[in-house]
Write a sequence for this structure.
């Protein structure tokens, strides 16, 4: 069994070693990650310059590009075997609701699915220091179930674990994406030469309290597992728009 690990937190991410240790119990693990933090890069590709690969030790590589670059390079040149499973993470911070569209963690998992392997995007929904041991153990359990049940095809599971001691976690819930209340702001500053510059900032995300969502599950102390579909087509809108007579 061949497993590809990637992330958007980089080669020095604290979750990398415990996750690699756990998944190596299921098969051959290869790590291909960015050489630095690439958070919020979404599904971007590096097209304007060449990419460089650094081999760290057996089965470990870092790339000076995005998480999506890492998956593409792993599939189309770096690996001599196609992965049976792609695991992206474990991200240090949540990836819930609409934030999945910004997330490099989720984008790497989606790219794995687009290449034909079932994929997991895993995140620890907190910023406090953590050894990621318990979180990695759960990701291994979930990975083993996906492989055992042949959960194949272009499928992505988005996982968010509450930042709690393992003994305090109440269980697992299958959820849908929540809805974020956006409070982002564009902060304008002036540099010493009098030129304006900008930071995209804002407060920590606020979520609508809706039952059955990833945010509600994590807030209540449950692990959230949200199956994501790659087809973004609004089927209801297609039906409604047939009445618009656009052909005439």
């Amino acid at each position: 069994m061949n497993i590809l690990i990637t992330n958007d937190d980089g080669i020095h991410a604290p979750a990398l070693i415990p996750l690699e240790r756990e998944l190596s119990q299921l098969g051959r693990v290869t790590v291909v990650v960015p050489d630095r933090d690439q958070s919020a890069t979404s599904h971007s590709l590096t097209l304007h310059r060449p990419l460089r690969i650094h081999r760290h030790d057996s089965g470990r590589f870092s790339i000076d590009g995005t998480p999506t670059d890492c998956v593409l390079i792993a599939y189309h040149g770096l690996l001599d075997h196609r992965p049976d499973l792609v695991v992206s993470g474990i991200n240090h911070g949540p990836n819930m609701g609409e934030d999945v569209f910004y997330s490099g963690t989720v984008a790497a998992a989606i790219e794995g699915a687009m290449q034909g392997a079932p994929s997991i995007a895993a995140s620890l929904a907190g910023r406090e220091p953590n050894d990621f041991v318990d979180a990695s153990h759960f990701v291994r359990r979930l990975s083993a179930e996906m492989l055992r049940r042949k959960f194949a095809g272009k499928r992505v599971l988005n996982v968010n674990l509450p930042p709690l001691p393992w003994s305090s976690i109440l269980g697992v819930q299958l959820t849908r994406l929540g809805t974020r209340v956006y409070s982002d702001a564009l902060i304008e500053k002036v540099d010493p030469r009098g030129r304006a510059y900008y930071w995209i900032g804002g407060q920590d995300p606020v979520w609508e309290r809706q039952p059955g969502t990833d945010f509600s599950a994590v807030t209540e102390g449950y692990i959230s597992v949200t199956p994501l579909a790659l087809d973004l087509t609004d089927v209801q809108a297609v039906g409604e728009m047939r009445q618009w007579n656009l052909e005439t």
About this structure: Residues 2-179+207-244 form a domain with the Stationary-phase Survival Protein Sure Homolog; Chain: A, fold (CATH 3.40.1210.10). Residues 118 and 152 are 5 Å apart (CA to CA).
